[in-house]
Each structure stands twice: as C-alpha cells, then as structure tokens.
Amino acid sequence: MSKIAILGDLHLGTRSGNEDFLSFQVTWIDYFLKKCKENNIEKIIQLGDFFDVRKSTDNQVLYAVIKYIIPMMKKYS
User: Fold this and answer.
1) Model-level pTM?
2) Quick one: which H or E segment has residue 61?
3) Burial 34-55 (b: 16+ CB within 10 A, else e)
4) Reduced 3-state DSSP string for 5-51
C-alpha cells in the first residue's frame, strides 16, 4: 500500500514576500520533505494555494522555488 502525504496551503511569499517568512517556509519544506523520505512517503499531494498572491509573484519568491525548493524535491525523490 502506498503512503501519501497531504500538504495544505503553502502560501509562499506571504507578508509581501518577507525574507524571514520565506526563509522559514523554505526551511520547513526541507524538513517536511526529509520526514516524508524517512517515512517512505511515495506521493505528496499539495492542496490549496502554493503562492500567496495569485495575480503576481515576487521574483524573490520565484527564485527561492527555483534555487531551493525544486532541488529539495529532486534530492528527496
């Protein structure tokens, strides 16, 4: 039987892309993915909002996704 993790709203870039919040979010995602790997989670389903703002996303937030989050996903996959 497959193990699945359900992940709710991430809202990356909350508080107008505040660097401290973004740093915390990236650190938490790393922790979450590490725990999923340790517990043999085979699939992660992300529900809700990935980004905080729908109409436009701060370049700093997009950079964090490309530079940190995508490599983390690959590392733990």
Assistant:
1) 0.88
2) helix 59-64
3) eebeeeebeeeeeeeeebbeee
4) EEECCCCECHHHHCHHHHHHHHHHHHHHHHHHHHCCCCEEEECCCCE
Rounded Cα–Cα distance for residues 16 and 34 (Å): 27
Render pLDDT for 6-57 as a digit per residue (tens, 0 to 9). 999 999 999 988 999 999 999 999 999 999 999 999 999 999 999 998 788 8
User: Which residues are CB-neighbours of 34 under 8 A, at least 6 positions away?
Assistant: 76
Cα–Cα distance for residue pair 2/48, rounded to 1 Å:
22
| Distance from the Cα of residue 72 to its chain's centroid | 9
